[in-house]
Automatic annotation (TrEMBL):
Coiled coil: none annotated. Residues 1-27 form the signal peptide. The keyword Signal applies. The keyword Cytoplasm does not apply. Keywords: Signal. This is Immunogenic protein. It comes from the Bacteria. CDD domains: PBP2_TAXI_TRAP (cd13520). It comes from Microvirga flocculans.
Length: 325
């Protein structure tokens, strides 16, 4: 059967229209963006849920928050492609990116990218009042828990000891979880312990109220400044007066709880996520939804960044005037 030129032209128009339609349908295909958070009892999980609900813009952009084992698990899942993003302590992200610290000998995860710094996780150096520890230097010869093996806190504690010129052999080191350390201190078996996390934390609150009194030892001065200069993921921080019973304001260091993603996630998707995170709608949800939500501020979105910023997020931060260039 022969076709006239006009009929052929009609078919051609139909095909090109179908191709265009396919293209636009593909352009509108929903982007699914999973967030690895933490355990359901922690802070990452509820904050992740709040952000996912506020930023989702179906059908184009769908965010879901998933419970996980926290920073290290999230970094590994992003590397394997099992997650598009996740929450991580800034130090853990830095070690993964550089193949150091907890990731020593495991290779570098050079595809990790920062989407936003969220809120500070303060380094608490908790001391029994009776131990009379006023500075990190006073830890020499004392019974000190540095947190359990494999924890980010243990690596941070070692950095802090070294910053004040103290070797691990100079202290009677123990390796307990914060809750166990608090119990041991209450029983008189421990002089000090390290804890990294948002304040107030229940184990320290209870200890301050029932355990004969505590001090939070300051991490400040030239030693702290030198540590911050060497490790970009540390930021200056202050635990406000009255956070713990009978403890005044304390200057310390913090690592950011950060939202990280992969260089493999398209720029356009990350741009929309960053834009959604700092929208008025998300601001209202964070302020109303969780105590830590109020601390998630656009002004500190890039504080303590130890890994490169994702180009999609970078575009947003430049438009928002937070980045030059």
């Amino acid at each position: 059967m022969k076709m006239t030129r006009r009929e052929l032209a009609k078919i051609g128009l139909g095909l090109s229209a179908a191709t265009a339609l396919g293209r636009s349908a593909f352009a509108q295909a929903p982007a699914f963006f999973r967030i690895g958070t933490g355990g359901t009892a922690g802070t990452y999980y509820p904050v992740g849920g709040l952000i996912a609900n506020a930023v989702s813009n179906p059908p184009q952009l769908v965010l879901t928050a998933q419970a996980s084992n926290g920073s290290v698990a999230n970094v590994n899942s992003i590397a394997s492609g099992a997650l598009e993003s996740g929450f991580s302590q800034a130090d853990v992200a830095y070690w993964a990116y550089t193949g150091t610290g907890l990731f020593e000998g495991k290779g570098k995860n050079e595809d990790l990218r920062l989407l936003a710094n969220l809120y500070p996780e303060s380094i608490h150096l908790v001391a029994a009042k009776s131990a009379n520890i006023k500075s990190v230097a006073d830890l020499k010869g004392k019974r000190v828990s540095l947190d359990e093996p494999g924890s980010g806190t243990l690596v941070d504690a070692r950095i802090i000891l070294a910053g004040w010129g103290i070797k691990e052999a100079d202290v009677k080191a123990d390796f307990l979880k914060p809750n166990q350390a608090a119990e041991r201190m209450r029983d008189g078996g421990l002089d000090a312990f390290f804890f990294v996390g948002g304040y107030p934390t229940s184990a320290i609150t209870e200890l301050a109220a029932t355990g004969g009194g505590i001090d939070i030892v300051p991490l400040a001065g030239p030693e702290a400044d030198a540590i911050r200069k060497q490790y970009s993921f540390f930021a200056a921080d202050e635990i406000p007066a009255g956070t713990y019973k009978d403890v005044g304001a304390v200057k310390t260091l913090a690592v950011g709880a950060q939202w990280i993603t992969s260089a493999k996630v398209p720029d356009a998707v990350v741009y929309e996520v960053a834009k959604g995170l700092w929208s008025d709608k998300t601001r209202a949800a964070l302020d109303a939804g969780h105590a830590k939500g109020k601390l998630i501020r656009k002004e500190s979105a890039l504080a303590g960044a130890g890994i490169p910023i994702h180009p999609g997020a970078e575009r947003f931060y430049k438009e928002a005037g937070l980045l030059k260039g």
